[in-house]
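quick one, 767 residues, struct below
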Amino acid sequence: MRLNYVKTDPWKIIEDSFNPNQVEASESIFSLGNGAMGHRANFEEQYSGKTFQGSYAAGVYYPDKTKVGWWKNGYPKYFAKVINAPNWIGIDVYCNKAVVDLNTATIHDFRRTLDMQSGLYNRTVTLTTSKGIKLTINSSRFLTLFQEELGCIKYSVKLHEHEAQIKICPYIDSSIKNKDSNWNDQFWEYMGQGSDDNFAILHNKTSKSEFDLCTYQGVSFYLNSEPSGAYSCKEIEGRIAFEMEVNLAPHEEIVVEKMGGYCTSLQQPQKKHQNHVKKIVQVALQKGFDALLDLQKKQWDKIWEMADISIEGDIKAQQGIRFNIFQLNQTYTGKNPLLNIGPKGFTGEKYGGSTYWDTEAYCFPFYMATKNELVAENLLNYRYNHLEKAIENAAKLGFTDGAALYPMVTMNGEECHNEWEITFEEIHRNAAIAFAIYNYERYTGKTVYFETKGIDVLVGVVRFWTQRMNFSVQKNQYVILGVTGPNEYENNVDNNWYTNYAAKWCLEYVCIRLAQILKEKPNVHKAIYDRLGLSKSEVLDWKEKSIGIYLPYDSRHGVFLQQDGFLDKDLKKASLIPSKQRPLNQHWSWDRILRSPYIKQADVLQGFYFFEDHFSSDQLKNNFDFYEPYTVHESSLSPSIHAVLAASLGRVEQAYNFYLQTSRLDLDDYNAEVDEGLHITSMAGTWISIVEGFGGMRIKNDAIYFSPQLPKAWDSFSFKINFRNSVIELSVSKKNSSLRLIEGVPVSVFLNKKQVILNAESSIKHP
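---
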């Protein structure tokens, strides 16, 4: 069932009524983050209704133990979980000694907005308490981009026709629980606390992983706009609250400005936490909420100046893409090389907050084109720095000689997933990491990274592929058995086409680049061979195996087969599935799903997306037309890839429908699971669906190409791309398409196959 309550607006997410059944969904949709911390849109005041409390510090996790009931050597010892951090946003409100609770009060008016231009969350509610007192609560908050440890709240309570005693209590509290906990483990250990005037701090440490975290707050109280020092401090172990109690006359107002957040051992040593955050609080309270908000707006202006995609004529599409871009920028900033991008970001606990292949396959192009090369390089370095761990992971499974299997799920380079099909079988993630290195080199034109770091990763990956495949005497080819492809609705299959083709490409790519380096930079070539213990015979073996890999194909249908035996399934189209049985993963048994022909996400077509130039348009058409009718798109990653491929086939309206699905996946809750958190990594796919789909952007032969197409519902669209330190803007309207250089050096561009050197004085248009 899709959500229909979010109002359409080009720059805002708006909810203008209160429904207790929508609270958890809204907590996801209105989430905030700044790359270092984030939280769901929980109410500051107490709420006794159904809620998903969640606040998270980037990179902080708990290694939840894995139990295996039977012998499975190599199985991960733990499953990493992002853990709910102590509550820093809490503000209790009491009216005539009774707690204010939206679940028990009578709600008259309710409105909340998320302003994506500034990252500001606002909430206004007018209610009558259980004791008959009418009041209005106004709350505004944001997480600063300029100070990653700092969040700011401005919270007020105003009476209507009756006088009343109001007590307002901003607090920090470490007595929190995780929604996702298998063993009822205590995730946080209490380490101490303290308060001083209007400043309070809690010290905690994670069990097992031993991350230090301080939760802090500083407060200023105002009575009818005048500062007030009439408050007290109340402490119990694990909780510190400041309390101000006043008798308010009708229309009088009490306001608290609260500055708080987290500082972790990933940012500062624990012994420096208190002094560090106390200085932050002092500066923040001195400036005040409104001045800090002005700074915040300037920071977001800089982001939007580069990252915005403007769409005219279709507000739903406009809101969708900006929501996606906004959440991506809230999740990852590229500042800390220890961090990566979790599928849920700061919006929920599903997937453990860990790094998946989504980063390289979907997110990498977005950050490379909208940020800069250093941010993209940080994402690559995340994997390079974990190479030894990847080699260890492979060794646990019996692989040798430097073979590397990057984890499907990780926080620190170790595999930490507890599903067999993913941990051992979904090995295609190795290829996505290799493709990101290729993509970086293709996009930047720089070879240094490949020669110094990228090749180390690639050799480990290639050594894994050569050991993972075996020679089939029956087929007289190399096969890869017992795998799961991107389509996770088929497990433990033989010769998944995407996996086999990706392995083949990895081998070929490394062999080709090593030959180029030998020809152009023999000294670099020797250094690589010496550092990695390579030999001519080993590289020749790679070449032989790349040629000999088996790729399942059916000549009758003219398509590559998902895997051996796919045509043995009962090939009924997805359109025949009753709507009440969708999504399948919430209605069908796993056994039934695995035996069905239904595809969770692009699999063969994922290969056509990555390796587009390897196939003809007829091959794409045949495979797209064959597989898409069996695809249920129950992975958030699926619609965007189909949008790009549909656009490349000239099927603009079909691409548009896929775009709406990916861009509004959470806003309209296509998969009926937004209450668990947002699909952050798939949001990068939304960006891809416009830039590479409707914009037709490609990087080929050291030049950038555009082949724009305009959906009927749109009057125009435009976006900017940072390509080799030059910022290029593409604008597409019903009349024509144009390119202009915003800043940087002249660059060779192609618009609908017409080449021009774009400089500050020139632009290119095409009807």
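Residues 497-520 form the longest helix (24 residues).
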